[in-house]
Amino acid sequence: MSTQYPNDPSRRDFLEAVTAVTASMSLIGADAMALATEESKGVSPMPDPIPAFAPIHQPRALSFDPAKLDGLSEKLIRSHWENNYGGSVKTLNAVKQRLAVALADKDTPPFVYDDLKREHLMRTGSVVFHELYFDNLGGTDAVDAYVRKAIGESFGDFATWEAEFRKIGAGLGGGSGWVVAGHNLHTGQIENYWLADHLHAPAATAPLLVMDMYEHSYQMDYGASATSYIDAFFRNIRWEMVTDRLKRVSAWRSARS
Amino acid sequence: MSTQYPNDPSRRDFLEAVTAVTASMSLIGADAMALATEESKGVSPMPDPIPAFAPIHQPRALSFDPAKLDGLSEKLIRSHWENNYGGSVKTLNAVKQRLAVALADKDTPPFVYDDLKREHLMRTGSVVFHELYFDNLGGTDAVDAYVRKAIGESFGDFATWEAEFRKIGAGLGGGSGWVVAGHNLHTGQIENYWLADHLHAPAATAPLLVMDMYEHSYQMDYGASATSYIDAFFRNIRWEMVTDRLKRVSAWRSARS
Amino acid sequence: MSTQYPNDPSRRDFLEAVTAVTASMSLIGADAMALATEESKGVSPMPDPIPAFAPIHQPRALSFDPAKLDGLSEKLIRSHWENNYGGSVKTLNAVKQRLAVALADKDTPPFVYDDLKREHLMRTGSVVFHELYFDNLGGTDAVDAYVRKAIGESFGDFATWEAEFRKIGAGLGGGSGWVVAGHNLHTGQIENYWLADHLHAPAATAPLLVMDMYEHSYQMDYGASATSYIDAFFRNIRWEMVTDRLKRVSAWRSARS
Amino acid sequence: MSTQYPNDPSRRDFLEAVTAVTASMSLIGADAMALATEESKGVSPMPDPIPAFAPIHQPRALSFDPAKLDGLSEKLIRSHWENNYGGSVKTLNAVKQRLAVALADKDTPPFVYDDLKREHLMRTGSVVFHELYFDNLGGTDAVDAYVRKAIGESFGDFATWEAEFRKIGAGLGGGSGWVVAGHNLHTGQIENYWLADHLHAPAATAPLLVMDMYEHSYQMDYGASATSYIDAFFRNIRWEMVTDRLKRVSAWRSARS
């Protein structure tokens, strides 16, 4: 459960990651083979496992003690992490194995392939946004000057940014979705984005702060009161993670010049 | 028409961009004021223009001669650039101005605000993906060893990558959407993604190659034959742009370590 | 709270309904006028209220005692009815008033109008499906021969129908959506349909049985266990309502011939 | 090509339709068996074909001469009917066969099943709306008093209805979707609805007039000029079909009382 992402960019660079994935292929390959064999008896030869289609995703451990958040219960956080996030990790791995089999079969109609690619996009969104969400929870620190300055430059002042972020969240109450503050790598802007499900995301954007608005994020603790949950979320933001994410983007921009 | 993005990350860094935007505020502010005044007579004071809500988007000129593509007509490309992409630039600017007015009015219900934020996400996706799409057209060069190696490490071999990219596109024929090969900044993987509209995007991903599958990308030239269009698209990929995008991501990863 | 739909088709015919709506216009008009005036000071003259844009929706009372369901708590049902369903009724009325103002203003851009029409479609779906859902809860009766025969003719046997209905629901766990068994008026078939949100619906279809799969339908009682909720839903189906809905469709078919 | 829907509700009643479907099972069963066998070698026994999962959809012939529309070219209409509508008929049949196999296999994960059910909803929407669309084209008649009165009662006057219908369409230009004027069977109202894709539909609604806004409906003739297409659509509406559809709904309402 506490195993880290094998190729988490914050821990090793891309070549290392590919090496790690390749090294774990014998194990992964065995699992993939088992499932694929079951699925495709007599239909097509099993493709060699390749990173883009290998079930390499593992749950990332919580970076905080779920018993110690302010206004978000341990029961809620554990259920969210284990069932909703954990379920998406499993499903993403299963989808990748099915994609490998489907692509190897020349007779798979494109519409069937794309039904699986939709699931692939959705589960990728769920896994990535959940990891970013849990990673930016568990803090008691204040916003530092670095983040405050960047947000101020984009939004006029910090209060305007916060007002918009919260308003977007309030509008998502009773349904599903995410609020994402992100640095758009293409336009160079920091903006807040509304997302209605795991398929949505701002194009070409590095997320800075992520808030889950699916009802499983708050119904157990707050029922239908989405705004009470948003208050609790703000009390638990780990701002140092936002600082870290913003610095990475700045480093990138410097590296280019 | 040929004006570039004021804060295109490939041309200046973030602080410069913010400065440029701020410097142009008097002009932008005047336009915003005109529209906002018309909309909100007597309702609320006009907010100060701020980058996140300013109509700063300008059409980015084509990087190639639209008369010289292989199998994609000048008429098609010009209509696509001017009407579909150009229309989204205008709408994105208009949405931002409406958001500024709506946020400043405390009585705007969250659901109304989020209707506009959905349009904001959609038009941002349209503008960003269209610019990436046109930027990766107009080439006659072959895939270089650098890109071929990275794709090979992710997909086993280049042919598998291409087969999947094309299959995703074929499945989108007759509808709307995008195919995006991208480097997921969170998982560290290069993957192909299916997108059904401008709202969709892979989470936390830097796009490498983008193919428009909205019917306005091909109906004029190919009618319903989406696969003929995909063939033409592949003949016109500017691979050096893909190389450039991939190198930026690598530079980022190095900068972090 | 217990007021019925003014033009519920099960209570009066269309002309009566239109009359009722028109008769209540003075009251509705006053409210609409108040809101519209606030919104559009000086912008455009208030349009006359017309049924398609009038805030005529009122919450429909529960047809059962929410304290007496088997495995669905009173707290859950009351929160669901009051906050989620009730919220959509209010929002639907508010959207209609905004549409009236927006349509009367010739300068409303079509994209802004359609943002509101999307909300209109979504809230219409929410209100209609919620009313159908609550109406088919609260029963202790068994499936009668009439329904069993019709479902059997479509699905081979009743067990196949139920297995599919439940499987669709299980796949929606952790997200949002509806499962609808409906009579498609165009194809003449009884089928089960997967819906991922309030915008989705089977084309031209009269619903027979509706199951809410938004997390607010079960998180309070069952946490992430969507299948336990589905079990509870099946124990509480009011089958006589399904019979009634099916008979209405048959009556229609006879009336045509 | 000219074969009619086997169980089109305008031609026979439900029991007749089921009989017809059952009678054609030996043929359908053979096809289904062939496909399913290919797919599932050794996996699971082939289920008996049942109407809900049988590939019974056949293209419905155009009710007008496509060479004689005013401002919509024969080439456009033929491509639209054959490729886009015809493609969806084929895909809907293929999806149903895959659903039969997937449901019979107890090991099919719900998320995989629901990927297919989403395709089922989408293709059902495409087939149904396309048939309604083509069926309400090809006319030169004026709106009759019956329809004019009903629309007037709902919208105040006919011009308001038309203005909204056209505005919704204009906002969908450059993307995908439908505009549907329909009689909502649950609320009793006649309204116009915005749909962004084949998955969308107004809940519990009998369509009266359907306009396709996918770009394949007009790009060949009008390029990006969606409003020119909307003008042409209005010149070709077969209003007697709208009258007929409205009378069916009224008959239903009378039958209930």
Write up this protein.
Four copies of one chain form a homotetramer. The first copy, chain A, has 257 residues and is mainly alpha-helical. Chain A is built from nine helices and three strands. Chain A has helices at residues 14-23, 25-40, 74-104, 110-135, 145-155, 158-171, 219-222, 226-235, 239-256, and strands spanning 178-184, 190-195, 205-212. In chain A, strands 2-1-3 form a three-stranded antiparallel beta sheet. In chain A, strand 1 and strand 2 (190-195) form a beta hairpin. In chain A, helix 3 (74-104) packs antiparallel against helix 4. The longest helix of chain A has 31 residues, at 74-104. Chain A starts with 13 loop residues before the first helix and ends with a helix. The relative contact order of chain A is 0.12. Mean pLDDT of chain A is 84; it is low at 1-47. Chains C and D meet through helix 1, helix 4, helix 5, helix 6 and strand 2 of C and helix 1, helix 4, helix 5, helix 6 and strand 2 of D.
Terminal CA distance of chain A: 40 Å
> How many beta strands in the DSSP annotation of chain A?
3
Secondary-structure class of chain A = mainly alpha
The interface involving the most residues is between: A-B, 79 and 79 residues
The helicity of chain A comes to: 40-55%
